[in-house]
Amino acid sequence: MSIFENVISSEDELRSLLGFPSELVQNKVISHLDQHCLEFISKSPFLVMATSDNQGMCDVSPRGDAPGFVEVLDETHILIPERPGNRKLDSLRNILSNPKVGLVFIIPGLEETLRINGNACIIRDEDLLERMEVNGKIPVVGIGVAVEECFVHCAKAFKRSNLWNPQMWLHEEGLPNIAKMIADHVKLPGIDAEKVDKALQDSYLNRLY
């Protein structure tokens, strides 16, 4: 039973409340990577990737590296290196059952973002993965994306959140204690915030690639 009582159930009702996009917005979506998209991707060190499995269970996962870490193969294909993570493989397992992905590319300091939607696959092409070597480490797999839609997303969310304004950032002592958060979530014998913090720091120092 939902706690929400007044739920919108149709697009007609939604449109009656929120309206329709402008002509500019309706026409800003392109189906290939043009020079503007290539420049944006080449300067982006960070993206978030949305996936879901064939049952509709969703996941959003960050990917980051040096600017331009995502390689453009041609005007409709890009390749994302899969660097070492926590081995839950949420995104990869989702892609195996449902190839649809949504990407948001972010450039620090720029409030507009680039969105790309398409179909993904997990690849092992050695010639492509070797080009993504860092510190002598070649990705075991990569995520290939066949691009279907590209468009610029406006800056309103970044402006409302003041995300790039350092004056609005919390001081370190005001930030969540991530190690304690993880320890409290896992509730494993002998695992406290100190041990989690040491494991995190070791991972960040020794297993980025």
Helix percentage range: 25-40%
* Total number of helices: 8
Provide the residue-averaged pLDDT: 97
Gross morphology is globular
| Cα Rg | 20 Å
Weakly predicted, low-confidence segments: none
Please list the strands of the largest sheet in the order they lie side by side.
Answer: 2-1-5-6-7-4-3
Distance linking N and C termini: 45 Å
* Binned strand content: 25-35%
The strand count comes to: 7
Helix vs. strand class:
alpha+beta
How do the helices and strands follow one another from N- to C-terminus?
Answer: HHHEEEEHEEHEHHH
Word description of this protein:
The structure is a single chain. It contains eight helices and seven strands. The mean pLDDT is 97. Strands 2-1-5-6-7-4-3 form a seven-stranded antiparallel beta sheet, with helices on one face. Helix content is 29%, strand content 25%. With 209 residues, it is α+β, with helices and mostly antiparallel strands.
